[in-house]
Design a protein that fits this description.
Length: about 260
Amino acid sequence: MAVRRPPGDVTYQNSGRVVCVTGGSQGIGLAIAEGFAKSGATVISLDCMDSSQKNESIQQIHCDVTVSLGCETAINQIVSEHGAIDVLVNNAAIQPLESYHPVHELDESVIERMTSVNLLGYLRMARLVLPRMIQQGSGVVVNIASGQAHRTARGVGVYGPIKSANVMQTRQWAVEYARHGVRVVSVSPGAIDTPMVRATLDAQGGSEALANRHPLGRIGSPHEVAAAVLWLSSDHAAFVTGTDLEVDGGLGAFGAFADPY
Ligand SMILES: NC(=O)c1ccc[n+]([C@@H]2O[C@H](COP(=O)([O-])OP(=O)(O)OC[C@H]3O[C@@H](n4cnc5c(N)ncnc54)[C@H](O)[C@@H]3O)[C@@H](O)[C@H]2O)c1
């Protein structure tokens, strides 16, 4: 099933806004960074890997979200160069191939790495950016969670619970920071065509089966997730906070006994 309309062509007015995206070098993070840049925002990608796709309108700062001091230096650089951070998108996360096992078979170093990137990385960035947003009296934090935050599967016994924690970070922080004019939202994608998913499909196969698990009959594009992030970060969503939006081709609506066709 084809994508009917190339997403990303709905534009928002983001000129004057400073947007920080973690993991913006590829995949969903890159599409989000491109979407904001296209709508006029000043966009900074914080990633531990250089992007293979050079985009002059996206500033890249080398940053590993597991290293507190590096995160602090990067955020200080953004604030001193641009004077504000209006949107933080916590997107950088990992799901390494060696994590697709029952938890008792996992090496503790894999568990610790996933926790440090996927859970603590979101927290590290939020702790650094929220004081700035409180000072500004405005801001939006978007946490990229996952469909696996909401439902079970074999082989995601660490990744899934951490993604659930990303949704709970969203709710808790939304309640805490609403009085400061800061909104906190999250997006839970279904399977999206990114290097992360490609690596798994290359190793495990099942591309068609994965597509068919989504009632819309395909996996999503990174720009379809970006479209949701752009809307949630905009003033069109000014009354939305603490919400998780599933962008998943109907995966979440698909009951265990349902047949999508
Ligand atoms: N692709 C999917 O199907 C899917 C589905 C649900 C949720 N997600 C979530 O979407 C987000 C993006 O996933 P993706 O598929 O684009 O992944 P990806 O692996 O294609 O890209 C992730 C990016 O994060 C960066 N990154 C990883 N560790 C980092 C670190 N320690 N510090 C800084 N940057 C780091 C990588 O270098 C890379 O550029 C993640 O939060 C993921 O959990 C993805």
